[in-house]
Amino acid sequence: MGPQLSAFRTIAASSDQLLTGALLPLAAVAQDISLDDLRPSGGRFDTAPFVELEPTAQRAADASGRAASAIQGLDRTPLIGSVGSAVDRADALFTRSSAAIDALARATKLFPAMLGDDGPRSYLVLVQNNAEWRSLGGITGTAILMRTDGGVISLIDTRSATELSRGIRAPAAQLPDDVREIYGSRPARFFHNLTEIPDFSVDGPLAKEMYREQTGVDVDGVVAIDPVTLSYLLQATGPVALPDGESLTSASAVSVLLNDVYQRYPEPAAQDAFFAGATGAVFSALLDGRGSATGLVTALARATEERRILLWSADPMQRALIDGTTLAGAIPTTDSDTARFGVYLNDGTGSKMSFYVRPIVTLTWGPCSAQDRQLTVTMTLTNTAPTDAATSLPKYVTGNGAFGTAPGAATVVSNIFLPEGWRLASATTTSGTGPTEGSFDGRDVLTFGSTLGPQATDTVVITVESDSGASEAEALITPTADASLPTAVQARCISSPSATLG
Fold it and tell me: What pTM was estimated for this model as a whole?
């Protein structure tokens, strides 16, 4: 009975700490703040609510963090079924609550400075195109220069990646040898390829330097978003009118921006102009304060959780606030409790065929003994394009064979980052193509190439093993154009050899 009562006592104490040390103080200070105060109006955010919340939010984050840590530290081994299940549920709830309060505390410190409370700031907004995959989402199709001053946000300039890559003769920065071994020098030579490296702490400075070389403008930070993020924002703002008179809605945004545009406008310059105009229209609706504040917060929270919004700051103090959050766009790190994979996808077709490729990723535990643990990540790639894709899809979408892939087929280059401290047991594909082995900042990386004809499938299966005590597993996945697909999957090691969660 001792361990059961001890677990109950810990949960009761943590509940009291979360309530009295975090939630009630936050509720007290926030009672005079309306959610509408967080919504922009006339292009301006009022930073006063963030400043007012900051000290209380920081104390609440400390209290909720201690409450969550106490439950995370409980030994589950001696707990009986119903108590063990209750502890698992409490752990998930307290971890989620602590993460949300910590995010609020960081935001109250970060946003006023970023919004220009202390003077004007400039940011480069990268709009990724998930129709042509890169590790963190897609090629950088459009770059928007955004300025902030006293809470006022202005969109100053818009340029295409093609324009920003023109004339570059040498890499904007010298990439480490292990990075070049996997990705070459492309991310430092072509603006489109910035997010091919799956670490935004590397991509952000690269974007800043390339933009400075091409325009002479030195920005204070870099933000990345994608059209799926825009679709979430449109749920809050409602439809917006595009320059050509069409109405862009939450339901149509992804298809229009990542597929339909290539059928309407054969010329890349016209495609870039449409893409930029649509992005600007959504931003304008947002900055005008359209829609509900609740809807806006919900949209931004979902996009952030799915790693569709990434942020890098040139200010070291701001970077410290970003580090450890999903905004940082970092490679997943394995710890004593959780083994983490990175599953990063890149288009190798030179086309927009990623729109049609559907990746399904699962995690499965094998033996779960204390001395021998085995974990398998399985990725199935399916090209959903119609069988007549070679003739029915625009040449710009299929690539027309320009880079060696037959029209209608899709080539995917997959970089699988293995958990640190875990040994590779096996790696197979249904296509029979073995991986290339490399490393990235001490992480083992397997690279696979899959060429999929219309309606074809390739499956990659990787098994790793370790004698560590980790009982959780997670795989982060490149965010795609399909919002129904998870950007992360989890699995727990339990007595049933192949039971999975997430």
Answer: 0.91
